[in-house]
Amino acid sequence: MNDLLGTDIGTSGTKTVLMDTEGHLIAQDLQEYDIITPRPLWAEQWPDVWLDAAKASIRNTVQKSGISKEKIAGIAISGLYGGSGIPLDENMKPVRPCMIWMDRRADEETKWVLEHIGEENLQEITYNGADPYYGYTKILWMKRHEPENWKKTKLFLPPNDYVIYHLTGEIAIDYSSAGNIGGIFDMNTRTWSKTLMDQMGIPMSMMPQRIVESTDIVGGLTKKAAEELGLSEGMPVIAGGIDCGAANIGLGVLESGIYAASIGTSMCAALISDQPAKGKGLIV
């Protein structure tokens, strides 16, 4: 068991690669899809489009490789910043499409946060400010504009964690995805901020309570998922995280003084620092 699968759920497509432990590419597959833009500056995706694409991409990669499933040691899954997260009902079914990172509808909610909570308070707790980019402003938009959907929603999950749930039956979120939601994650304690969530009226129960490292094993493939994908039941599924963070590791951003730019549907610039990156702008 020496080969490893990696899947990235992107804005316009989901990619899977199979590599050996020396970094040699064995097989790969891409499944493309369109972004839903019902209005100017709005951007959404139905979660099962991501799920179906991930399953097809993984299955096709395994088939293309021609190697035995017993040789594959595990899979890690990264994903785009799913903005609000996927709103799920009590049966873990999506309530509505997920508002993704490029959705800019939450202007009024951003202004409310700046007025009632303040950017300085946000930065001290979350190391981030207020902007429609962040998931918590989109969550507030849904609460304000879609009360019926809000009542149905029991949990928000990022795209990669939604796929992991369907592969393992386990609910978890990694630190990079939690921090990326923005104004409700306390970077000092590395957990959800009850203070900020209470101020915004977002129930703590709507956030995954199991928070894991990107390198942690969330669970093993269920029998159903293993049969669908052509993999071994119980194969480890690793948390992964936000796509840009995962890409930066692949680009070699492993110590101070190394910088990288990752260019796709958006562009992310990254560096490593031993100091908190507090300040205005989009810092995640």
UniProtKB/TrEMBL annotation:
GO molecular function: kinase activity
The entry's keywords: Kinase, Transferase
Domain Carbohydrate kinase FGGY N-terminal: 5-250
Pfam families per the UniProt record, alphabetical: FGGY_N
Listed SUPFAM superfamilies: Actin-like ATPase domain
GO BP annotation list: carbohydrate metabolic process
Entry annotated with the keyword Kinase: yes
Domain of life: Bacteria
Gene3D superfamilies: 3.30.420.40
PANTHER family hit by this protein: SUGAR KINASE, XYLULOSE KINASE
Family: Belongs to the FGGY kinase family.
Name under which the protein is recorded: FGGY family carbohydrate kinase
